[in-house]
Amino acid sequence: MGESLLFRPGRIGSLDLNHRILMGAMHLGIEGQRDSLPQLKAFYEERVRGGAAMIISGNVAVLPEGGGHGMFCLTEADHLAQLTELIKAVHNAGGKMALQLTHWGRYAKSSETGRTPWAPSPIASRLTKETPAEMTLADIAKLKKAFAAGATFAASAGFDAIEIMGSEGYLLNQFVSPLTNKRTDGYGQSLDGRMRLCLEIVEEIRKQAGNDPPIIYRISGDDFMEGSTTREETLEFARRLEQSGVDALNVGIGWHESSLPTVGAIVPPGAFAHIAASIRAAVSIPVIGANRIHTPETAEQLLARGDIDFVAPARPWLADPAFAQKIIESDRDGLNLCLSCNQACLDHTLGHPPKPVSCLVNPRAGKEAVTIPPADKPLAIAVVGGGVAGLQAAKTAAERGHHVTLFEADNRLGGQFRLASHIPGKDIFRETIRYFRVSLERLGVTIRLNTSPSMQELNPFDRVIMATGVQPYIPETLEGVDLPHVCTYADILSGTRPLGRQIVIVGGGGIGSDVAHYIVEKMKLQPHVQTFFAERGYGSEHHETVTITLVSRSEKVAKGVGPTSRWVLLAELKRSGVQIVKGYRCTAITSEGVWVENDSEKRFLKADQVVLCTGQRSRTEMAEFMKEQLHADLIGGASDASELNAARAIRQAYELAAGV
Fold it and tell me: pTM score > 0.70 for this model?
């Protein structure tokens, strides 16, 4: 990759950058807490060492009512002091950092700020269920001064650039959008009025802070809200921002309220690049792209096409703190890719209550300040089970200097994670298995596939870690579970059972919902086939009818799936015509179908195939015996099969092996 466009030096205003891979803004949920400052420094220092050309900080509120839980606010003296310490730490590590200036507007919660949220107009937010106060002209003047003061502080503290957050439905974006700006004064009505505050803020910053630091404006490329800012208006706004003195545009996508997924794994890589490209064609300043640019291949393609000038992914830096360095060193095999699962990042920050950010595939994320020392004495360690828990345990133990042997009963690594990789949007799970396999090979771990070790084989080891995982739970007391047309989710996802045409899925949790999604996609004509016929003037309809019914005991389908992913999954099932029967328990399976009932009625659902998604059970036979006989440690599904939770399993494995 020596000729890669990603490696070419770049320039934003007066700032020279070594290459084109930035680290986008992430709210970590620990900002502003003095006792968390060492961790915050360690987090960013590690990403500097990982090659980020420049890091953009998480949201920093310019005023108290525009912030939220675990955020810096520029009206707090200690927060200013912490930010000054933070930029010094980044500079000492050899890095560059931009300070992102933010006001959440109607997305701020009074329960977190203790203040009534502001907005251009008093229009309730679906996100917070609150109605904000309409900003007065005095409020607007105060906001402009606060942004300018923030830029002045950033310059004096030594930040290398500032980014103004004007995207994702936050306050400045709310002023530009006709959906949230119904003002009848000079800050509303026409596009000129709706743009006015944003342009005045840039001009005020230039007046107060001069030409340094460079200004990046995070512009909403498309709100994906019906009736919001048009594409033509956005392009005009981009041109006006350039004229007002902005040095680069960072293109954001969608609002938190929009119905189009923008950050989930179901979104194709680089899906929004055409939007950034249209903005790049309208201006002469650099354009930065972020959403769904998670791999070096996608980033390279977008630069080669001329869609953008820089890439600024965020979550991929959680997954691998050396994201840029590995790309620069052509170590694609060693890159730990982000899964866009949101389970330990966005689901944490948007949780009730919010939790600090971590990462499913990188349990060190958020714990960089805690050093894991080499082992005092290298031990011979056996890890039994090659799912993600076993893989993480083996990796961490080997990194500490232990001699590790990994046993896996199957002929491939990955376990349940490999099964899950067949679900739409989760094929990237195979990249995690690839990363673990490469890591273990480099660490010299002995991998023995197709092997279930005996007691005698494990006896010589100093330590045994049982990560034998789970298997589908079959409720043996349920009448009809042994009929030939009944199978488990594992049978379906592994491809060992052909699909029926009238399918009932028993179990409406995360697994059942995923299996329904899998079957829907499996039955569709693939997009490339549709395109082939469409380009040649032929129809390509799939005439075969398949019905899928999902039976959920709970009234809440896909319970346990994270909040940022659940609504996307349910929307896909609805769009695909999956029938959902909520609040019913399965009482019997017959050769013709399934009997279900609730407290008031009994129903019969015809089926030629019944798929059991009724939970999991630990592979306890061997694990419990080894625990007693060899004092083995049980991790992952072997210790708790209550639900499939890869994030928990990987974290548990990491913490155990870090202490061995």
Answer: yes
